[in-house]
Structures are given as structure tokens and as C-alpha cells.
Amino acid sequence: xxxxxxxxxxxxxxxxxxxxxxxxxxxxxxxxxxxxxxxxxxxxxxxxxxxxxxxxxxxxxxxxxxxxxxxxxxxxxxxxxxxxxxxxxxxxxxxxxxxxxxxxxxxxxxxxxxxxxxxxxxxxxxxxxxxxxxxxxxxxxxxxxxxxxxxxxxxxxxxxxxxxxxxxxxxxxxxxxxxxxxxxxxxxxxxxxxxxxxxxxxxxxxxxxxxxxxxxxxxxxxxxxxxxxxxxxxxxxxxxxxxxxxxxxxxxxxxxxxxxxxxxxxxxxxxxxxxxxxxxxxxxxxxxxxxxxxxxxxxxxxxxxxxxxxxxxxxxxxxxxxxxxxxxxxxxxxxxxxxxxxxxxxxxxxxxxxxxxxxxxxxxxxxxxxxxxxxxxxxxxxxxxxxxxxxxxxx
Length: 395
Hints:
- It contains 16 helices and no strands.
- It is mainly α.
- Helix 1 (about 15-30) crosses helix 6 (about 135-165).
- The chain is globular.
- The two termini are about 15 Å apart.
């Protein structure tokens, strides 16, 4: 289904590009604020350490349910939908800060995961639809860079605010930021192009299955995303174990995530290369770097600097692949950008889950070297899959 509106040819002003990146970063940050607060939440609400994991589970369930909301951007006015969701997110954050029972806490976390994720992915699709075709990769790359920085800095900001006040202040401050962002977006968001064809919600979801069955670029890029996010979760879920054994505190372990922010700097560049027809070259180079990163990461148990180098390489390669994937699936001037991003994130969810489960099992059996072997093997599979599917993707 093609958009009957003529494709955009005017470049999106830099102010709008930065606006999308900032809004996406602030939206996704809400999903990760709870992670440094688990011990505090468990104490206040009388939960055991094991039961406190329900907080993250509720948030992740909300993230999964958000994939049912993201496609609405292809049916409703994206500008109005974005503002409405942001208003609901501000209310959910304030309500979460007022939670007095475990049920209210978990319900608030679910809503924040739902609306924060829907906002983030909706903004990516909005940016893709607002950008001209010749700059779409760069714009999506900038927006994705905002997402990376938001999720990496969320834990740090949460810890600082909670340290100065308490955990409730984290969500009250975030609610205030959401209100300020709502006013800013209301005044400055570019108008959204109307959909070329109305679809009922059921038909909207059914069309996503059709995309998965018939869109070869989506399937290939989705599978690369699945493998790449599996690699990410194999690494990040297992890293805490050897570092804890070496005596690192939770704060110090969390600081390693900030190193990955350097990878966000390469995100927009990868999108710009895709705009110039270098998407396959970028993908191949990034997959090789992703594989090579496991060599220095193998020294995580004995040295610090190789670990830092490996994290930078891993995140830079992963973000380059992620942005290139999205640039390619958004390449056409289409009225299906929201559904495309929802389909793509299905692969992300599967890869993240499989990687997390595999990391726990392999570390128990073979330790950190087993993790490195597993990560490198998945990278090799991704490289082989990319090479074998080059003709298929271009058809």
C-alpha cells in the first residue's frame, strides 16, 4: 500500500531533527528509571529481592503491549496521537509517584512501559514520515541516537535524583519533564501527513502479518536485528556476573553502560551512508566490528581497558546495524511507517529474550569465556545470514 501523497523533497529543518531525537530520548528513559531503584522499592513495598523483579517484568510487559499501539500512527493523525500519548504518560508518571500499594506500583510500571515505548517507537516512525526520502536514514539515525543516549543516561539520572530526594521524586520530576515536553511538541511538531487509506484497527494489525510474509527487506533486516539484539543481551546480561565477582559495586557496573553512549555518535552517520546507497557496505563493516569486539571483551575478567574498548566497538557496531536496518525498511515513501517499526520491533523483542535466557544458561555452564564464544558464534551467524541474503534483500 503506497502513499498517494507526493514524496517530500524539502529537507527537514535541523531544529525538528533535534526535537525528534530529544523527545525520543526522554520518552525511552522512563522505561529504565526503575532499574537502580529496585532495592529501595523492595524495601518500601515489603517485597523480597526475588519478588522485586516483578517491577521490571511489569515494565517489560508494558513494552510488549506497546507494539499494539504503535501501528495506530498509520491510522490516526501522528501529531495528535503523539501529544495524546504524552499527556497520558505524564499522568501515569505522576500516579506512579503516588503509588502506595504493590498493585498500584506494578500497574504504574506497566503503563509507563506501555506509553513510554509507544511514544518512542511512534516518534521514530513520525521522524521517518516527516523526512524527505533522500535524508530519511540520517534523520532516523539522529532519532535513534537520542534513544540510545536516553536509555543509557536514564539509570544515572534516576540514581542522582533518588539520592538527592527519594524514588518518588524520580517520577514526579519525569512527569514535570513530560508536561514541559508536551507544551514544546504542541508548539513545534511538524504537521503529520494524512494516511492515504483508512483502515480499521483489526485490518491494521492483519496488514502487519502481510508485511512480514511479503516484505523481504523487513524479514531480512528483522532477522539481523534479532541476532544483533541477542548479542547485546548475551553481553549485558552476563557482564554483571564477572564484574561482581571482582568486587565492582552496582554503581560502578552501571557506569560501564555510559561507555556505550559513544556508539550513539555513529548512529546518524550510518543512516547518512544508507541515504547514499552504502547500506550494505555499512552492514558488512558493522557485522565484522561486532564480531571483532568479542576479542577484547574476552579479557573482561582480567583487565579494564580491553573491556572498555570492546564495549565501544560492540555498541558502535550494533547501533550502525540498527540504524541501517531502519533506514532500509523506511526507504519507500509509505503510509505504513508505524506498522513497519512495530513489525521490526517484534524481532528485537524475540532476540532480546533469547539472548537473556542464553546468557544465564551458558554462564552457569562455561563462565565468561563461554559467553564470549556464544556471542562470537551469533555474530558469525549474522554475518553469514547477511551474506547469503544479499540477493534476496535487493529483490
